[in-house]
Amino acid sequence: MERLQKVIAAAGIASRRKAEQLIADGRVTVNGKTVTELGTKVGASDKIEVNGVRLEREEKVYYLLYKPRGVLSAASDDKGRKTVVDLFPEVEERLYPVGRLDFDTTGILLLTNDGDFAYLMTHPKFEIEKTYVARTKGIPTKEKLKQLERGIVLEDGKTAPAKAKLLSMDKKTDKGIVQLTIHEGKNRQVKRMFEAIGCPVQKLKRESFGFLDLHGLNAGDRRELTAHEVKQLRVLAETGKIR
């Protein structure tokens, strides 16, 4: 059972706030009866109409995309740039990305039409780990790596404890390859963390999301998540463990 306004919003008819107004205005019926109480819950078999039009509920879908460079993490773009949703032309459901990756960042990105799932995957309180590999200008010292692990003070707050590891370095070109694992998702967080220690990112890839990785995929490839993977991701978010 789900709240009526949430079901209306999930169908793409209106935002949740607007859906609440539609209910309060008496413009929504459930099984032929007008409903004005916002706490009303409905099930899959209930017939819902908004302004006399039958609401069609979308089946929940979940995808893993290996996001390529030069693609926007958005459902649409008013500047006409290519978005991650454009990579799913045959999918009829209304997809949107779970969180985001920068325009020039590659790697794992989830897409879905399930708002609750997206919330579990992105809210920092659920602490789902995401691992990035960055090529940096400058080779981070052990102390700088410890700074990343302890947390960096950014303009929008201090980052949570992280895991950082220098994978390789090239002293001739003064470049490093660093693995960083975080569970937050502040705007441009990884890049800003490296900028703060004086080792700006030149190239960035998200290699894992929770227990998911990019095995067998090339940039631009995608696959549906299995029902088991979706269940396990929910369990991981809610308990911090995989069963």
Would you write up a description of this structure?
The chain has 243 residues and is of the alpha+beta class. The protein folds into three domains: 2-54, Roll (Structural Genomics Hypothetical 15.5 Kd Protein In mrcA-pckA Intergenic Region, Chain A); 62-124 and 211-239, Alpha-Beta Plaits (2-Layer Sandwich); 129-209, Alpha-L RNA-binding motif (Alpha-Beta Plaits, 2-Layer Sandwich). The protein is built from six helices and 17 strands. The chain has helices at 4-10, 16-24, 115-122, 142-150, 189-196, 227-239; strands spanning 2-3, 28-30, 33-34, 41-42, 48-50, 53-54, 62-67, 96-98, 106-112, 130-137, 153-154, 157-158, 163-170, 175-182, 201-209, 212-213, 222-224. The strands form four sheets. Strands 7, 8, 9, 10, 13, 14, 15, 16 and 17 form a nine-stranded mixed beta sheet that branches. A four-stranded antiparallel beta sheet has the order 3-2-5-6, with no helix packed on it. The longest helix has 13 residues, at 227-239. The protein is elongated. The protein starts with a strand and ends with a helix.
**Mean pLDDT over the full residue set:** 93
* Uncertain runs: none
**Series of H and E elements:** EHHEEEEEEEEHEHEEEEHEEEH
Separation, N- and C-terminal Cα atoms? 25 Å
Keywords: Isomerase, RNA-binding
Pfam families: PseudoU_synth_2, S4
GO biological process, one term: enzyme-directed rRNA pseudouridine synthesis
GO molecular function: RNA binding; rRNA pseudouridine synthase activity
